[in-house]
Amino acid sequence: MRSTDNRRIVLASRPKGAPTPENFRFETVATPALGEGEVLVRNQFLSLDPYMRGRMSDAKSYAQPIAIDAVMGAGTVGRVVASKDKNFAEGDAVLAFGGWQDYAVVEAKDLAKLPAGLDHPSYALSILGMPGFTAWHGLLKIGEPKPNETVVVAAASGPVGSIVGQIAKLKGARVIGIAGGPDKCRTVVEDFGFDACLDRKAADFAEQLKKAVPDGIDVYFENVGGQVFDAVLPLLNVHARVPVCGLIASYNATSLPDGPDRLPLLAGTLLRQRIRMQGFIISDHYGDEFADFQRDMSSWVAAGKVKIIEDVVEGLKNAPDAFIGLLEGQNFGKLVVKIAD
Amino acid sequence: MRSTDNRRIVLASRPKGAPTPENFRFETVATPALGEGEVLVRNQFLSLDPYMRGRMSDAKSYAQPIAIDAVMGAGTVGRVVASKDKNFAEGDAVLAFGGWQDYAVVEAKDLAKLPAGLDHPSYALSILGMPGFTAWHGLLKIGEPKPNETVVVAAASGPVGSIVGQIAKLKGARVIGIAGGPDKCRTVVEDFGFDACLDRKAADFAEQLKKAVPDGIDVYFENVGGQVFDAVLPLLNVHARVPVCGLIASYNATSLPDGPDRLPLLAGTLLRQRIRMQGFIISDHYGDEFADFQRDMSSWVAAGKVKIIEDVVEGLKNAPDAFIGLLEGQNFGKLVVKIAD
């Protein structure tokens, strides 16, 4: 590989339902020349997250779809290798939206400098970055858990869910996780300190959930939808709060489920139980709240009060399979791809 | 009728679907004797409101169901005719939950004194009472309209909806009403000052609504559900707020509509558009907010900025038919039954 070669993964076609390897194309192109105010970044880690599934589609969503033949987008941690901007110099550690590729040309205004010599630079993609901020905002600004309330967290072993539960414990709540399979449930309780965790794949999952929340559910952090939400809905207490962060169960769906139409059931439950259900997208909140998040979370991480487990996949070419597995729940912890040392 | 006779309407049977006259029974019983701390009230006006449909059922709801053979509940304005409590004397004007009957025995703690000599004592059941407070709380505390935003109000000719729209105008919003039929729409625009009003019964209602909100919908005050909500949902803007006050379209429903199941569609829209959808029941908020509401609303009414149209039905025995008509949208303004002068 020549030093000007850039290996990258582009969107070859839009998935119908679950993405397949054919939706991605691995290619090598020349690294573009730098313009004024631009910086060339060598990507070291890239973050794989469920929201990327939405950007592969051209349905209406909160973000522009990725164009066919364009590089797959992703948050990245990397090192500056060349700079035509006075604020960045070769060797700087940076956070960028650098995509699924070796090198990214990024406008300086879209780069954030990271402290030099970090023990875990990839944490900027997880506990100290977007997933951590998502958990912090959704739980504290919408969920608003109070001491002794019951908080239920979907996708509890994932990066967002695991942090949601740990913050809820810090706030004095009783915290029940929901995860896919006994191994994930074990780590939710043993590593992340939830009070209990239920396997959503169990045949009697809905019954188990009902027993696990004898006082009902005050906050449900929604990351999943589908049958998990169906089990949660009848257990929501008066004045419950439901931050809607993700709906991974439906991301690959190509049509609505069969009837009856339960839209009136959901609306009626919101009314009868005086529930607040509120969707959010974390990119709306960086300007107002990211500094508060960083202050809270870095002190919690330093004190060992909140932690993350990373699932590190080695090698750019393995990103598509890792992403496909993520949508199926096969990852174990925050999924990052290590591209370079 | 002897002076101790009490004419009343009780719940004879629970409705299946829409209530019928057979669900009610008119009867005359003796007025009970007063105990210590109790007050005998002669009801003059009783309020008919959609929420009463829920109390006729024994399905889980936010209020206890009315027992079979018990008197139908209702907010009432009346006059004290006898008192065994030191705070109330014969002749006092009072607000009570006195029910569908001539006389109510009420504990003094459940009575509120009204000023003597009110021009419109029945306003305590509408613009200065529960429906007005419902509109004020739902719009200002959940809807939070900003100047130049677009507010859409369902059941816009009704007591809650008409007040919601008038307050939204005071706050500088553009206000579109939805009502049943051209006569109601005319009064929504001409009497209540909405910018426009659409007939939900029109064949091309959804198209009309889309054209009426070129900038989308920022606040939707939900009173109806059903096809009105279906037309609103795709028009909700990013960061829209949906106070859910009522769902009259489904109150008489005995089963869910046919599929597909649009619950995931609603949840997905809340997420993608970052919408807050929040149910509320006004009885939760009297302690905290009623004084603020009274201060705002009495000044607006005095200044002629907010008004109400009353639909006064004469005679207790006509209450069941009036209530059945209310659920079909046949009333025109705030429905009250005048029982006595």
Number of domains of chain A: 2
Compute the CA-based radius of gyration of chain A: 21 Å
* Individual helix count of chain A: 10
Broad structural category of chain A = alpha/beta
| Name given to the CATH architecture of the largest domain in chain A | 3-Layer(aba) Sandwich
Write the CATH fold name of the largest domain in chain A: Rossmann fold
Query: What amount of the residues of chain A lies in strands?
Result: 15-25%
- Tell me the number of strands of chain A: 15
What's the rounded overall pLDDT mean of chain A?
94
**Sheet with the most strands, sense and barrel status of chain A:** 7 strands, mixed
- CATH first level of the largest domain in chain A: which class? Alpha Beta
Largest interface: A-B, 43 and 43 residues
Specify the oligomeric state: homodimer
CATH superfamily of the largest domain in chain A: NAD(P)-binding Rossmann-like Domain
What does it look like?
Chains A, B: InterPro entries: ADH-like_C (IPR013149), ADH_N_2 (IPR041694), ER (IPR020843), Glyco_hydro_3_AS (IPR019800), GroES-like_sf (IPR011032), MDR_fam (IPR045010), NAD(P)-bd_dom_sf (IPR036291). Chains A, B: One of its GO terms (molecular function) is hydrolase activity, hydrolyzing O-glycosyl compounds. Two copies of one chain form a homodimer. The first copy, chain A, has two domains: 5-126 and 309-338, Medium-chain alcohol dehydrogenases, catalytic domain (Quinone Oxidoreductase, Chain A, domain 1), CATH 3.90.180.10; 130-282, NAD(P)-binding Rossmann-like Domain (Rossmann fold, 3-Layer(aba) Sandwich). In chain A, strands 3, 4, 5, 6, 7, 14 and 15 form a seven-stranded mixed sheet that branches. In chain A, α2 packs across α3 (159-170), α2 crosses α9 and α5 packs across α6. By secondary structure, chain A is an alpha/beta fold. Chain A is built from ten helices and 15 strands. Helix content of chain A is 28%, strand content 25%. The first copy, chain A, is globular. Chains A and B meet through β12, α8 and β13 of A and β12, α8 and β13 of B. β13 (276-279) of chain A pairs antiparallel with β13 (276-279) of chain B.
